[in-house]
Amino acid sequence: MISSLTSNSYLTFLIGNDKFAVPVEHVQEVIEVDQVTKLPHAPAYMLGIINLRGKILPLIDTRQKLGLPSAEVTHSNRILVLDIKDADNKQLLIGATVDIAREVVAIGPQDVQDPAHIQYNNTTSLSGIVNHQGDITMILNVPTLFSIGEITSFDLPVN
User: Fold this and answer.
1) What pLDDT was estimated at residue 23?
2) CATH number at residue 148
3) Mind telling me which SMART domains this protein's record contains (predicted)?
């Protein structure tokens, strides 16, 4: 389980050529793509549901949630199993697709820049930007990007 690392630890991953990160406190594990069951009448960002050792999880297309063009999900993609909590302390495990899961890195708060100064349509999905020797990494705001209220509007189980 990844969550035993410090709060300044982030799991980095790629979507296309863009590098993103999520705090490890939200990451339960990284798994390979297996069988995905499609859901009828689901929004475009909801790829379906997956079975994770007997637990059914919604599978979210991270590209779509970020407003990026969709791409076919293949066995080379990875699924981040994310633990999300909302303001009411509701909890939901989801799967979020990424192209390539990279590594866990330590990022100090002093290295994170506020994304508010960037003219970006969806700045609420970013909690920060890190520029390390020209390598730009966007840190995702997991509870905002993967909103429990939005995902559970399809009657998926919430713990």
Assistant:
1) 95
2) 2.40.50.180
3) CheW (SM00260)
**pLDDT (mean) for 139-151:** 87
Does residue 121 lie within any of the structural domains?
yes
The total of structural domains in the chain comes to: 1
User: Could you list the residue range(s) of the whole structural domain that residue 26 is in?
Assistant: 2-154
Q: What is the pLDDT of residue 63?
A: 93
Confidence class for position 73, pLDDT limits 50, 70, 90: confident
C-alpha–C-alpha distance, residues 45 and 94, integer Å: 13
